[in-house]
Amino acid sequence: MDKTTIKLTVFFEDPFWVGVFERIEGGQLSACKITFGAEPREQEVWQFILRHASALKFGPAVAVLEKPMHQNPKRRQRAAHNQPTGIGTKSQQALQLARAQSKAEHHARAKAHKAEVQAQKYAKKQQKRKDKHRGR
Q1: Largest Cα–Cα distance in the chain?
Q2: Helix, coil or strand: residue 19
Q3: pLDDT tens per residue, the chain (136 residues)?
Q4: pTM of the prediction?
Q5: Which residues pair with 126 in a beta bridge?
Q6: In contact, 37 and 10? CB cutoff 8 Å
Q7: Rg (CA), the chain
């Protein structure tokens, strides 16, 4: 999925106020320069974007590397802490996989044994009820 980023920078270039639209799409940067004249208010800039955004004439594209957005250090630390730590060597990974399979087998055996014990207990209870009913 391609991401498109458009950024507007408004600055004073003697004697006019100028806006530069930068569009980054698919690793390509293209720009468009608009002259406002007098200092534009936020409302005027917003109205300009709404009315004329589709008609902007961007220049030829230039290859660019997108820098990741700055992230809070605490958020980065939390994200690093939550990432799974992988075991390095292939043999260690094989041992870990074998351990996981053995654990799953043990769990299945324990569950089956528990169900069997429960069934025996239920059968014994039913037999005891029948014996009581018969008067033994």
Answers
A1: 112
A2: strand
A3: 578 888 888 888 888 888 888 888 888 888 888 888 888 889 998 998 899 888 888 888 888 776 777 889 999 899 888 887 665 666 667 778 888 899 999 999 999 999 999 999 999 999 999 988 887 7
A4: 0.48
A5: none
A6: no
A7: 35
